[in-house]
Structures are given as C-alpha cells and as structure tokens.
Write a structure and sequence with these properties.
This protein has helices at residues 17-22, 39-45, 65-70, 148-153, 172-177, 197-206, 229-242, 253-260, and strands at residues 4-6, 29-31, 54-56, 78-80, 89-91, 99-101, 114-118, 138-142, 162-166, 186-188, 211-213, 264-269, 275-279. It has 281 residues and is an alpha/beta fold. The chain folds into two domains: 1-112 and 245-281, Leucine-rich repeat, LRR (right-handed beta-alpha superhelix), CATH 3.80.10; 117-228, Leucine-rich repeat, LRR (right-handed beta-alpha superhelix) (Alpha-Beta Horseshoe), CATH 3.80.10.10. The longest helix has 14 residues, at 229-242. This is F-box/LRR-repeat protein 15-like leucin rich repeat domain-containing protein. InterPro entries: FBXL15_LRR, LRR_dom_sf, Zyg-11_UBL_adapter. Pfam families: DUF7885.
Length: 281
Amino acid sequence: MLEHLDLSSSMMGDDSVEQIVCIGANLRYLNLKGTKVSSTGVSILAGHVPKLEILSLAHTSIDDMALSHISKMPSLKVVDLSNTHIKGTIHQAGTEGHMVSSLVSLQNLDYLESLSLEQTPVRDVDLSPLSSCKGLSHLSLQCASLTDATLHHMVSLPKLTNLAVCEAVLTNSGLHSFRPPAALRVLDLRGCWLLTEDAISLFLRKHPQIEVWHEIVHLFPSEQFSSNTITTIFEDFLREQKTTKDERLKYGKEELLALQHSPFSLNSPDDTGIYNIKATI
C-alpha cells in the first residue's frame, strides 16, 4: 500500500486530487508544496486520508477555508502551511462582515505536534486558538505584524520545545515579561530588529536552558530552524521509515490503473524512498 507521496512543485491542481483520494487510505506522508492545489482541492481530500501524519501545503494558494477540511484528517502530526493565504480569520456563515477564528479548527487535531505558519498574514489575536493545541512541540511563525502578544499566547503549551517568532515587532519589555513553557529549548527570534543584546542576554541568564537565536547575540546553532523546520522534520520522519520494512512496493493494480490516465505519472522511488509523481505537460 502506498504510504508516501511527493507531488511537490508539480502542475497538479484541484482536478487531480481525486486521484489521491483513490489511493489515500494508507497515506502517511503527502507533499503538495508548490502545486496548484487550492482550498477546494483540500476539501476533496478531507475524509479520505485517515492515516495521514505529515502534510505540506506550503507555497500553495490555500486560504482559511482549507483549515476546516484539514481538521478532518485525524492522524495529522506535522502540518506545513507556510507561504499561503491563511489569515487566521474567516467570515461566519449567515452574517455580513462578522469574522471568526479559522485556526480554532486545528484544535480538532489531537496528535498535532508541529505547525508552520511562516510567511502568512496572521495577527497576534488570530493565534490565540493555538494555545489550546496542547500537543504542539514545534511552532514556526514569521510575520512582520506579530508583536509581544504572540509570545504570551504560547505560555500555556506544555510540550513546546521549539518556537520561532521571526521578523516580528517584539520589544525588550515583551521578552522580559515572557514566561516560556518549561519544555522550551529553542527560541528563534531572528529578524526581530527591536530587540537589543542586553535584553536577550538578560533573558538567557534567567532561562539558561533555552537557546536563543538572533543575529546580534551570535548564537547560531549547527542546524537551521526557521524556514526549514518542517522540512527537517519531514526528512527525519523519512529516515525513520527507511529502517522499517518497506510496504510501499505493494502498489496494487487498481491503484496503478487509477493513475494511468491522470495528469501525472508514477516514477520509481527516489533515494529517500518516496514515490515521486511528476506532472506530464
């Protein structure tokens, strides 16, 4: 049964999502980064990938409408929504101009561990529902509209170990008053230009267990976190899978026939063990 599917940077669009539905029952990894899939395509996928654990929709045109459909993928652990049109709010049905939270839908994902909302137009207030996602261990944000309030939304996340709030308008007083979760080990503040070296040094003295990443303190780790956080998690996940029995070769006749006349073709798995489906144009 097919478990891993990488369609990234292909010409695949919403009209081809039905092909994934046909083989989605056992999918655990699905990479749609840089495709033409929209929120409509995500709605088609919802309810048909019960075992999906890792999903990338980065660099697609999805918006907040997609979140309610993503919430119907019950096994999700890692979700990459970076560089999309997600704002964190959505018009409430049956009302004129009344906005409600869209990120509240993610509270339905009981196993969610890692989330990237980098380069999305979210605001501080829009992020408040994430404080109820108690399983989050990695959260990556990058937006110039975020302020000190974002840090304080994260205080109640007991398992949070890695937090990135990059290129935000964080202040010295906001960092000073931040009470990080006990589990936090990495705080990425790169691009937060208002922070001073004295303020960061004081934070480090108060919380020596936390590694702070910022240009002015020259505390760069060996591995990049911000924009490659989810990518790294994907790669770690795949390395783990290579040590187990590979069931992906059991690709059934019906599944092959379903793909035969689709706008993409099945190639051999690459060195990571993922089947790459490339668009035929």
